[in-house]
């Protein structure tokens, strides 16, 4: 659960480590104040003028609330998570339960509590619908029913299983009904699931960081959008766009269907996007621990708040506030002043939703610890005695004014007739619209034909002439989710609506109609094709989504050829209409729609690019770059010939399309060049004659990879040509590492011995080029290297057994001191498979302590060091951080992206930081393991796996250093039990270590 963030985040310590007489209170620092009674906690809240916090329920009526929802009567249903985080002991009855909280006397406070279900174990999600209650209890997704109507569950059915339990604060969660009638949920990055129907023999759907969804009628489960970190809840804006808040990384994402987003760790399910979509924020709030998200669409707050984003921040004990600003087919989020803050450090908001009263409801875990890692060291563990449900209401200039928790005491929307429910689709409070849609969808699916027809007529009228966009969209969504959109004129009305969001949803629904083979396939494909040139990017995004679904969906024999032709037509029109590539989503989504067919047969796409690409820039350039990458990953000689022919056809054109295509091929060939089986002499002659300097340079680089003699000679000459721009020379070094010749080695030897920016890249390139002369040259030049160059040289030398022996020989001869070796090189020697090499390294360097050694004493000693002495030299600490930590991590936008961004991770207290630095292998998140590869030519490389396609893998290591290895060249690949982060930083002199740690803990940017 998000309350309990990721494996890096411990607890915020506000202690000033330099203040005399004050102590940092331990590695699991709780809130500094005791728990407050509800009435006292209420007084601590700071809200904008006119707002008040009202306590709806508190302990003992509710404890450890983790999820909540409402029924049609306006009663609140809450999941209590007692068994968090370990689960119930074997043989003991689990204590998690589902409670119904009801305000029977309309005074705004729950006065009736009913236990609907108990005996649950690690229950984290809840939603009502279809005559029962959906409950998430990993590894299962349950459906509970009360068949005798006594408010107690008497039937439990497992709908899905296979949900992971790897990380207990990242389980399935955040259930909500989507506009399309699917049940949506969120799932964290370090929990790994293979979800399937229990009786199915298939392996299941792979899920980690994602928004996923389940269809209650078809029983289909799928990933809706991939990525982020540990989202805890998803919500939809007035247009039906999905949003999640995320931890550690950026805090807010607009999740487009089929999108693949930046993630905290691990690899996306589809490696052929060749980019990850970013968040929509340009700012950060306090720390990085978000839980829940609400796009406010109630009617109790002032109108100015409608559409604003409210997110729980459990480390800040606050509700943060962002505003959405349209940005093409997506949005940008701008920071507003925090909506709610408090001095009560126990406030832990885990869910924020609009209730039947239009107010903001908050489930408050209420615990002294923000993270379960903290609580594990405390004998008391997670608090099991507190919990709160708050309502934030607006009273304006009438403080204390009563605000009922639901519109009427006896309300029950399920008893309203169809006409009344359709009327609620125009309600100003989203709660009523969503509830009415859900009930209508369920009732109309089993209604008789007469009632269905009456409902269709009424809903179609509302769709055409509803007074608000919300009402018109609700009518469309209800027609679809109730199965009434597949006949009549409603879909045509929506496809021709003046509102772009209605047209967009109509496109998505039309695509589903085609895939369901309802008989209107050709007609609807024409409609979608017409929309591909729509002036509004929101509609074009829907067309791109539909095209992707049609390209990869299950179609009949009769429909598939039609769809194949039409998808190509859609993509052509989409590319022409979106050629400026300014939209933040469309280039990505257009490629994702094109990729399945292109991978099978790239010829039609390449022909179109050759004929039309120059007039569709810059989007065509983006597509060309990815197209070349995909051809390289396919490892198909015929496709590579097509790529060469395409380049030959466009080589004489002086535009960025040619540059992009060349760069895509160069990137795709980095692991192991694959030369086309037909001659390329004409191609490279044309590229050399280009008037565009960039085309000439990239052509030369590709020529070097493909064995063009003139290109190879020019590339090697460029390395040491001081008259050329540095960037061109660096690029030549990168290309040269693929050329394993004596001439290449000589050029690189010369470059590494010259002062300047080429030395280190040249040294690293030699590691890949190989050759018996390399270790001797590196060791001969050692004394002339800078400290950073020596680090690079040492890492290259330990990458091959014979080279490492040569290094150890120089250590033995006292030509090199072991103190000059970086920790990464020492660890590599200590982990070598060669026993003789390991023994010799231990004799010369000393015992290389295994990662699982007890380090608590070291941590305690270093903590005492931190607490003593004069104020640190932060400039010196910064320089040390630059050479050690920032070769892998970022801190306030400085550094590399090999490991997590330290700005919001791993340094929340001195104890957390020392534990992560001194014992980095205590807990390793999935995706941050050290992957070790031995190549067939004897080279050893390691790092974090960041790309894994059919043809190659890419590793990131400290430096930052990137290694791309062809799978055909891999002799062995294994995942270590160790983190990419090296051990041993604590071995530096005490003064240096103190300066480093205290700089990272409190950099100057934190005032």
Summarize the structure.
It contains 31 helices and 34 strands. It has 1007 residues and is of the alpha+beta class.
Give a short account of the largest sheet: 5 strands, antiparallel
Structural class: alpha+beta
CATH topology of the domain at 31-394: Neuraminidase
Main β-sheet, spatial strand arrangement: 1-24-23-22-21
Name of the CATH superfamily of the domain at 31-394: TolB, C-terminal domain
Q: What's the number of extended β-strand segments? A: 34
CATH architecture heading of the domain at 31-394: 6 Propeller
Strand % is 15-25%
> Spans of 5+ residues with little confidence (pLDDT < 50)?
1-28, 554-562
CA distance, first residue to last residue: 31 Å
> Helix count?
31
CATH structural class of the domain at 31-394: Mainly Beta
Tell me, briefly, the overall form.
globular
Helical residue percent?
25-40%
């Amino acid at each position: 659960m998000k309350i309990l963030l990721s494996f890096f985040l411990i607890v915020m310590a506000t202690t000033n480590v330099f203040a005399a007489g004050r102590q940092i209170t331990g590695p699991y620092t709780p809130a500094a104040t005791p728990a407050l009674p509800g009435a006292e906690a209420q007084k601590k809240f700071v809200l904008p003028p006119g707002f008040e916090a009202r306590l709806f329920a508190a302990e003992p009526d509710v404890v450890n609330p983790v999820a909540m929802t409402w029924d049609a009567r306006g009663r609140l249903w809450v999941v209590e998570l007692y068994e968090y985080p370990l689960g119930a002991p074997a043989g003991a009855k689990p204590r998690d339960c589902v409670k119904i909280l009801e305000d029977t006397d309309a005074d705004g406070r729950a006065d009736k509590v009913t236990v609907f279900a108990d005996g649950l174990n690690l229950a984290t999600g809840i939603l009502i619908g279809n005559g029962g209650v959906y409950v998430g209890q990993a590894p299962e997704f349950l459906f509970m029913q009360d068949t005798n109507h006594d408010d107690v569950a008497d039937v439990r059915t497992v709908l899905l299983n296979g949900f992971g339990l790897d990380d207990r604060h990242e389980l399935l969660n955040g259930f909500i009904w989507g506009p399309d009638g699917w049940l949506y949920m969120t799932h964290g990055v370090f929990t790994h699931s293979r979800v399937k129907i229990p009786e199915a023999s298939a392996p299941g759907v792979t899920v980690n960081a994602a928004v996923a969804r389940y269809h209650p009628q078809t029983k289909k489960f799928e990933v809706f959008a991939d990525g982020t970190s540990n989202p805890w809840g998803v919500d939809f804006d007035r247009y039906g766009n999905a949003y999640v808040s995320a931890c550690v990384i950026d805090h807010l994402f607009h999740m487009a269907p089929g999108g693949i987003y930046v993630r905290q760790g691990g690899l996306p399910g589809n490696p052929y996007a060749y980019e990850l979509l970013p968040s929509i924020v340009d700012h950060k709030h306090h720390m990085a621990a978000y839980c829940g998200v609400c796009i406010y669409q109630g009617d109790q707050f002032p109108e100015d708040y409608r559409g604003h984003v409210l997110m729980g921040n459990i480390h800040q004990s606050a509700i943060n506030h962002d505003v959405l600003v349209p940005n093409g087919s997506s949005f940008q989020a701008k920071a507003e002043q925090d909506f709610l803050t408090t001095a009560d450090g126990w406030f832990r908001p885990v869910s924020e939703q609009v209730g039947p009263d239009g107010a903001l409801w908050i489930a408050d875990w209420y615990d002294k610890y923000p993270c379960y890692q903290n609580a594990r060291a405390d004998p008391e563990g997670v608090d099991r005695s507190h919990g709160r449900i708050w309502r934030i209401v607006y009273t304006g200039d009438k403080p204390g004014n009563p605000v009922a928790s639901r519109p009427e005491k006896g309300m029950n929307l399920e008893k309203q007739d169809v006409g009344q429910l359709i009327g609620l689709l125009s309600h100003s409070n989203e709660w009523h619209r969503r509830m009415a849609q859900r009930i209508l969808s369920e009732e109309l699916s089993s209604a008789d034909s007469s009632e269905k027809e009456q409902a269709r007529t009424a809903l179609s009228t509302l769709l055409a002439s509803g007074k608000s966009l919300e009402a018109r969209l609700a009518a469309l969504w209800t027609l679809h989710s109730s199965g009434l959109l597949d006949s009549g004129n409603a879909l045509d009305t929506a496809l021709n609506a003046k509102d772009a969001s209605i047209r967009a949803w109509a496109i998505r629904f039309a695509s589903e109609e085609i895939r369901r083979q309802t008989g209107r396939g050709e007609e609807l494909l024409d409609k979608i094709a017409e929309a591909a040139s729509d002036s509004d990017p929101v509609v074009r995004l829907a067309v791109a989504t539909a095209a992707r679904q049609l390209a990869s969906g299950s179609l009949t024999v009769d429909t598939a050829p039609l769809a194949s032709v039409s998808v190509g037509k859609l993509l052509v029109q989409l590319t022409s209409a979106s050629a400026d590539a300014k939209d933040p989503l469309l280039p990505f989504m257009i490629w994702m729609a094109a990729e399945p067919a292109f991978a099978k047969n790239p010829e039609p796409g390449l022909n179109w690019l050759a004929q039309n690409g120059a007039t569709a820039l810059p989007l065509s350039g983006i597509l060309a770059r990815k197209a070349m990458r995909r051809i390289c990953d396919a490892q198909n000689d015929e496709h590579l010939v097509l790529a060469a022919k395409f380049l030959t056809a466009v080589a004489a054109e002086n535009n960025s399309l040619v540059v992009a295509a060349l760069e895509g091929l160069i990137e795709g060939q980095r692991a192991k060049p694959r030369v086309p089986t037909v001659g390329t002499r004409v191609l490279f002659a044309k590229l050399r004659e280009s008037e565009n300097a960039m085309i000439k340079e990239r052509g030369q680089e590709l020529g070097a990879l493909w064995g063009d003699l003139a290109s190879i000679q020019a590339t090697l000459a460029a390395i040491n040509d001081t008259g050329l721009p540095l960037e061109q020379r660096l690029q030549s070094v990168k290309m040269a590492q693929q050329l394993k010749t004596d001439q290449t080695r000589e050029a690189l030897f010369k470059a590494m011995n010259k002062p300047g920016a080429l030395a280190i890249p040249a040294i690293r390139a030699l590691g890949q080029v190989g050759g018996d002369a390399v270790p001797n040259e590196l060791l001969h030049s050692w004394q002339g290297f800078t400290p950073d160059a020596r680090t690079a040289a040492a890492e290259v030398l330990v990458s091959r057994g014979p080279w490492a022996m040569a290094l150890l020989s120089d250590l033995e001869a006292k030509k090199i001191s072991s103190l000059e070796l970086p920790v990464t090189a020492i660890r590599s020697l200590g982990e070598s498979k060669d026993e003789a090499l390991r023994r010799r390294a231990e004799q010369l360097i000393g015992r290389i302590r295994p990662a699982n050694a007890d380090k608590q004493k070291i941590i305690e000693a270093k903590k005492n060091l931190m607490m003593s002495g004069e104020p640190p030299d932060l400039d010196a600490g910064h320089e040390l951080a630059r050479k050690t930590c920032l070769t892998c991590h970022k801190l306030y936008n400085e550094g590399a992206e090999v490991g997590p961004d330290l700005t919001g991770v791993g340094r929340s207290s001195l104890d957390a930081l020392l534990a992560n630095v001194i014992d980095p292998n205590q807990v390793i998140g999935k995706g941050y393991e050290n992957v070790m590869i031995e190549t067939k030519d004897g080279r050893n490389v390691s790092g974090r796996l960041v790309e894994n396609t059919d043809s190659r893998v890419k590793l990131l290591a400290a430096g930052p250093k990137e290694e791309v290895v062809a799978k055909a060249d891999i002799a062995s690949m294994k995942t270590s039990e160790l983190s990419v982060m090296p051990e041993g930083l604590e071995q530096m002199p005490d003064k240096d270590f103190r300066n480093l740690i205290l700089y990272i803990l409190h950099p100057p940017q934190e005032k």
